[in-house]
Amino acid sequence: MQVKFKRPSSMKDKSMHYCPGCGHGIVHRLICEVIDELGIREEVIGISPVGCSVIAYEYFDFDMVEVAHGRAPAVATGIKRVHPDKVVFTYQGDGDLASIGIAELIHAASRGEAFNVIFINNANYGMTGGQMAPTTLLGQRTTTTPFGREVENNGYPLRVPELLVSLPGVYYLERVTITNPAHVRRAKRAIKKSFLVQIQKKRFSLVEVLSPCPTNWKLSPLDALKWIEEKMVPYYPLGVIKDLTSKKE
Questions:
Q1: Looking at residue 53, which CATH number applies to its domain?
Q2: Which of 178, 136, 184 shows the shortest CA–CA distance to 157?
Q3: H or E element, residue 175
Q4: What pLDDT score does 249 carry?
Q5: What's the rounded Cα separation, in Å, for the pair 108 and 121?
Q6: Which pLDDT tens digit goes with each residue over 111-129?
Q7: Closest by Cα among 170, 56, 54, 47 to 107
Q8: CA dist 121 to 18, 21, 231, 236, 245, Å?
Q9: Which of 46, 172, 210, 215 could staple 19 via S-S, CB 3.0–4.6 A?
Q10: What is the reported pTM?
Q11: Are 206 and 163 in contact (CB under 8 A)?
Q12: Which residues pair with 91 in a beta bridge?
């Protein structure tokens, strides 16, 4: 018998609290696989703010810091400047990153801070009951938009990487999803590249992951994956949005 897969060393051996069909567990594993493959477990500092991933430190077996809602980029800035030899990343949801934390994100990106961001977009505030987030799609029903999001009252959904693309300090932006094995593999490559951008001193990078939230979407796990493909991907197109990794300083 040949072992094909095993639990990454950077991931603790315990059950997760996430809802059935949630994408956080998949992305957690990808991050841990990447950290193991790069051999940086002892050098990593992860930062997780309020949201469904608020207790991510229960699953990651490396240094983690829990911070206030939206403040992960600000804390990451401080940690990376004090410990420039460490590999610092933030793990943030769309309600956290694109709403209360959008100022911290934009200014960290504008300054070209040398950490990477893993951004989970499930188009709602997952932890607090499924309210509308900045990434909620037009027409999407949430607990605060029961008849669907409308432009007149709520504006348009934010495309975060496209918002950051013009900033000179941003070196790498990519949007991926985890709806099938091929997309999971692409997501892992993107996450790995974002860590390499930092390790190679190329400064700020962000990977957005379109991720399912079956509980708040009121869908089965399988239908939630289909919803991403049919509804989210047309508005949030997948692929590399910016890549300056070959740029010479």
A1: 3.40.50.970
A2: 136
A3: strand 170-177
A4: 58
A5: 19
A6: 999 999 999 999 999 888 8
A7: 170
A8: 15, 15, 13, 10, 24
A9: 215
A10: 0.95
A11: no
A12: 118
Structural domains counted in the chain:
1
- Provide mean pLDDT across the span 139-159: 95
In a domain, 217, yes or no: yes
Residue 83 belongs to some domain of the structure: yes
* Predicted confidence (pLDDT) per residue in 191-214, tens digit: 999 999 999 999 999 999 999 999
3-class DSSP assignment, residue 191: helix
Helix residue spans in the chain (DSSP H): 24-38, 72-82, 94-95, 102-111, 151-154, 160-164, 181-199, 214-217, 221-227, 233-235
If pLDDT is split at 50, 70 and 90, which confidence band does 54 have? confident
**In this predicted model, what pLDDT tens digit does every residue of 210-240 receive, in sequence order?**
999 999 999 999 999 999 999 999 999 999 9
**What whole-number distance in Å separates Cα of residue 209 and Cα of residue 244?**
20
> Residue 57 carries which DSSP code?
G
In a domain, residue 105? The reply is: yes
Residue 118: in which H helix or E strand, if any?
strand 116-121
